[in-house]
Amino acid sequence: MPIHDESHVKNALARFGRVAFEDDAARERARRRLLNAAKKYGIVPVGFIDGQLRSERGKGATRPPLPTGFVTFLLTDIEGSTGLLTQLGERYAVVLKSVREIVLRAVGSVGGHEVDTRADEVFAVFEKPGLAIEAAVDMQRILGEHTWPEEVECRIRIGIHSGRSTLSENGYIGLPVHTAARVCSAANGGQVVVSGETKEALEGSLPPGVRLRSLGRHRLRGLTRAEMLFQVEAEGLGTEFPPLRTRTPPSTDGSPAP
Description:
With 258 residues, this protein is an alpha+beta fold. The protein has helices spanning 6-15, 24-40, 46-57, 81-88, 92-109, 129-145, 175-186, 196-202, and strands at residues 70-78, 113-118, 121-126, 156-164, 166-168, 171-173, 192-195, 211-218, 227-233. Helix content is 39%, strand content 21%.
C-alpha cells in the first residue's frame, strides 16, 4: 500500500479492510503507519477509525430480539467530535472507543438494547421509559468523571423519545425514530433532553432522585408540530446549559411555538 501522497493515503484507507496481513502484529504496524500518514497530509479518517472499532467488537455476535410495540428510543452523539478528531488525531480512536463502551454498558445494565452504532452516535431502545432515563443519567455521570487524553473535554448529548415504530429487518421505521434523533440534536453536550411523549409514558415512575424540568415547546427540524421538551436533572449532572439547538424560541405557556 503506497502512501507517498494524499491520494495514495486515501486509497489505502479505503482498501485497508480488504488486505490480508501475515498476522495481527503486521496489521497493527500497517494501521499505525497509515494513520501517521493521514495525519501528515491533514486527512481526517473518520470512516476508517469507525471501521476498526467495529472490527474490534467482533462479527456474528448474537443479540436478543429487539422489543416491539410502544418503546422508548435513546440517541447519543459526541459534541464537537470533528474538533476532537482534529486535535487528537489517532488518539481520537481511544476516546471514541471509551465513549461507546460507557454508553453501551449503561444501556445493557438496565436491560436496554443497542440498535445501531455509527461514527460518534449510538442508537438504543428500551421497553420502559424509566430505564432509558436511568441509563442516560448513568452515562453522563461516568463521562463527566472520566479523564480524557491531553485533558480534552468530551461530552455527549442525549435525546429520549417514546412511541410506536415498525421493526423491520433493517431496524426501526417510523416518525418516533426521527423525533428521537431531532431531540438528541437539540441537546447540548452533557445534557439529557426528553420529549413530552416520554414524560407522559413515565406515569410518575421516574427513577429515584431524578426530576424533569420543562424547557418549553420547540420546533424541531423536519417535524410539523412543536415538541414539549424537558431536561433530566439528577445529582452529578450539569444543570446550566446554553439554549437548546433549535430554530425557534421556546413557548412556555403550553401553546405551539410560532
